[in-house]
Amino acid sequence: MALVLISPTAMNLWYATTPSPDPSTSEGVLEQTSDAVGQAGRSFWEWFSGWPLHVIVILVVGVVLLVVLRRVISHVTERIAVGAPKGTEGSWKDWMRRTPLVEDAIAVANPLANERRAQRARTVGSVLNSAANIVIGVMIVLSILAELGMNVGPLLASAGLVGVAIGFGAQSLVTDFISGIFILIEDQYGVGDVVDLGSGAEGVIEEVQLRTTQVRAVDGTLWWVRNGEILRAGNRTQRWSRAVAEVRVPVDSDISTVRAALDRAAETVAADETFAAEFIEPPAVRSGVDMVSDISMTFTILAQVRPGMQWEVSRALLLAAQAELRAAGIRRGETSTRTAAATDVENP
């Protein structure tokens, strides 16, 4: 194996002929690179600070606004639905708590009132949430299109025409939904009410939705009624009701004796512990004779009672009237009962 020996003189000569790097050249390259990066950054920021940043800001603000609005709506409607009590004294959530309402007292007396209130509150909350989604969503889209330089005027006109076309095509559906919203907001009827919606749909309300109302008839038939087709609604269990007991006696009966017997019957029912709490006004016999035929005279006992109790009170009045008339030696003729809601009979 041969070894190559390089003399010190040759090494010095090689180092002398090798060029050393120029410091000024390296600094120039770094400066050019730095300038290029800075120029690219400035160009990107000038581009990004234009419509991209504006679009991002619009999206962020719109989403935050929608989330906050939906949360407030859901919070308020849910608290109304569950009937939450007022917060403890000094709690930071006091301002978010609702104060006790008259509906709370009604809910204690009527268990269906809770379900009715919850259904109404949650349905209205759902409508408000949907409206918030549509309004804020449309505002976001229009703002972004305007930021991109598009003319939103023709777009709005086209959307209006499309909306009109859809409205004509789904007119009945829109009518049902709008009617359902007003039924719930105005509290025309609710779960547990006894109603007459016309066209034979008469019974107890089982469910109220935005498009339809479900009514359970006495024979068990479940009626599905479109809200847009309800032209009138008779509610027999709203606010207060009136029990009407019609008593017929032979035409030759002594009127004073009959009235005295019916007065005692009314006092007996009013003093009964079973019905004492149901009366808004005590039962009384209407003055005079309501009807006279060839064979009978008709007297009427009226009582203003809590909603839904008119039928039971009417039956109790008839039983008491029969007992008192029999004790007075008066043979009772045909007897009938009628009930009237507050909206049907204002003045007896």
From TrEMBL:
Residues 133-171 form the Mechanosensitive ion channel transmembrane helices 2/3 domain. It is found in: Cell membrane. One of its GO terms (cellular component) is plasma membrane. Residues 173-231 form the Mechanosensitive ion channel MscS domain. It is a multi-pass membrane protein. It comes from the Bacteria. Residues 245-331 form the Mechanosensitive ion channel MscS C-terminal domain. SUPFAM superfamilies: Mechanosensitive channel protein MscS (YggB), C-terminal domain, Mechanosensitive channel protein MscS (YggB), transmembrane region, Sm-like ribonucleoproteins. It comes from Isoptericola jiangsuensis. Belongs to the MscS (TC 1.A.23) family. Its main location: membrane. The keyword Cell membrane applies. This is Small conductance mechanosensitive channel. Keywords: Cell membrane, Membrane, Transmembrane, Transmembrane helix. One of its GO terms (molecular function) is mechanosensitive monoatomic ion channel activity. InterPro entries: LSM_dom_sf (IPR010920), MS_channel_1st (IPR049142), MS_channel_C (IPR049278), MscS_beta-dom_sf (IPR023408), MscS_channel_2nd (IPR006685), MscS_channel_C_sf (IPR011066), MscS_channel_TM-2 (IPR011014), YbiO_bact (IPR045276). The chain crosses the membrane at residues 51-69, 126-146, 152-174.
